[in-house]
Amino acid sequence: MLDGEREPTARVAAVAGVAVMAREFHEAFGLGASDAPVPRPDSWRLRIALLREEFEEYVEAAAAGDLVAVADALADMTYVIYGTACEYGIPLDAVLAEVHRSNMSKLGPGGRPILRADGKVVKGPGFAAPDIAPLLRDAGHADSSAEESS
């Protein structure tokens, strides 16, 4: 490992503070915050509108080559995503770690990436889909066993 590099688990752990910050914001402003995974039929349209707004800010910043605005838009999107998870009671840090595990299983033979012509990573022969339903069940969502987890 090179100096300054972090272990993969340390990189994932560095994100853990985002969930805490999003929850603090939601509680301070009287927004939804659930302790267990629950459907949120009352707020999904707002969450989509917020994410679209932040995504459009990213598109404009990226097209303009404005790295400061790109960084701000990415942080805002992350904040909205974690806030949405807070409303739904989804343990997003755990889900993210599981998706990371799954994504790393996309490596091909010899631990080499398999890429499409456009650079997108494709699934290798050892790919294992993320198993998200147990994470929701462990967090208290009673219907998780019947749901598709990818």
UniProtKB/TrEMBL annotation:
Region (Disordered): 129-150
CDD domains: NTP-PPase_DR2231_like
Domain of life: Bacteria
InterPro entries from the UniProt entry: NTP-PPase_DR2231-like, NTP_PyroPHydrolase-like_dom_sf, PRib-ATP_PPHydrolase-like
SUPFAM superfamilies, per database record: all-alpha NTP pyrophosphatases (SSF101386)
This protein's UniProt keywords: Hydrolase
Protein name per UniProt: HAD superfamily Cof-like phosphohydrolase
Organism: Actinopolymorpha cephalotaxi
